[in-house]
Design goal:
Elements: H1 4-33, H2 35-60, H3 68-88, H4 91-97, H5 100-105, H6 111-139, H7 146-171, H8 177-194, H9 206-213, H10 216-228, H11 235-238, H12 243-270
Helix pairs in contact: 1-6, 2-3, 2-6, 3-6, 3-7, 3-10, 6-7, 6-12, 7-10, 7-12, 10-12
């Protein structure tokens, strides 16, 4: 008798690719129909950049080595894409409650294909937010050229995928949407500061530096700034690790998050 895994292997890349596209399209369609989410996902990042970044630049910029507007712009862009995808993965818990996840997990496709389809779908949801933030940054006269624009798009895509994998790793240990809503703020909010989204973290005390090194968001933010500030005088003052090291850390932990999250989530499905 042919098993599910046999069928998935027989279907090959085309079969799994079609499954990823279908799952991703479903998530994108849900986002486009949710006007409240559309409004809120654009509003809050713009407030952070406009008021916090603009205010700090006006207050401290003249006497500081940092361009606070550009610094906060890159931090908020990476944080928004990373967190949007991470929190969007919570929809798997809703799918579990209405038994949709049971239907897709018994389909003849790889479980990793299903999970990656969810992550890719939430990445498609996050990218329009990123484009909106970039356009807002241009209006605020954040320094921008073709190379920086391309770098922001590339690192933004990586940040979104990375956030989705991190969200999947968390989701494997969360039993319900209510538990996720209570836990996620305690996981995400501290990283705004330990990852250096709003303020430089070059000279943290040893204990806080350890906490910062354990924050996944730090590497997404630093990778984006690494490309944005490449070949500029501010590079050594703003960027913590070279881009290749940030990418290597993100790639290795992405695989770990995917494996851990998928195994735990499938185990929870089997135990229902």
């Amino acid at each position: 008798m042919e098993t599910k895994n046999d069928a998935a292997r027989r279907g090959g890349i085309g079969h799994n690719g079609a499954a990823i596209a279908a799952i991703a399209y479903r998530d994108l369609l849900k986002f486009l129909r949710d006007r409240a989410r559309l409004f809120s996902t654009f509003l809050f990042p713009l407030i952070f950049i406009g008021f916090l970044g603009g205010g700090m630049q006006a207050t401290f910029g003249a006497n500081s080595e940092y361009d606070f507007l550009a610094f906060i712009f890159t931090g908020v862009l990476a944080q928004t894409l990373w967190q949007s995808t991470a929190m969007g993965i919570v929809s798997l818990l809703e799918d579990r409650q209405n038994d949709f996840s049971q239907e897709i997990f018994v389909s003849p496709i790889s479980r990793y294909t299903i999970v990656f389809g969810k992550i890719f779908g939430e990445t498609l949801v996050a990218l329009p937010q990123g484009l909106g933030i970039i356009l807002f940054g241009i209006l605020l006269q954040v320094p921008m050229d073709a190379a920086r624009f391309a770098g922001l798009l590339a690192t933004g895509l990586l940040a979104a995928l990375y956030g989705g994998a991190f969200g999947m790793a968390l989701l494997g240990f969360i039993p319900s949407r209510r538990a996720a809503d209570q836990l996620f703020p305690f996981v995400f909010l501290p990283q705004y500061f330990t990852a250096g989204v709003f303020m430089p973290i070059n000279n943290l005390p040893p204990l806080l530096n350890i906490v910062s090194l354990l924050s996944p968001l730090r590497y997404a933010v630093d990778l984006m700034r690494g490309l944005f500030y490449w070949n500029t005088p501010a590079y050594s003052d703003v960027v913590l690790f070279p881009p290749w090291l940030n990418f290597a850390i993100m790639a290795s932990s992405f695989l770990g998050f995917m494996v851990i999250g998928t195994i735990q989530f499938v185990r929870a499905e089997r135990n229902r």
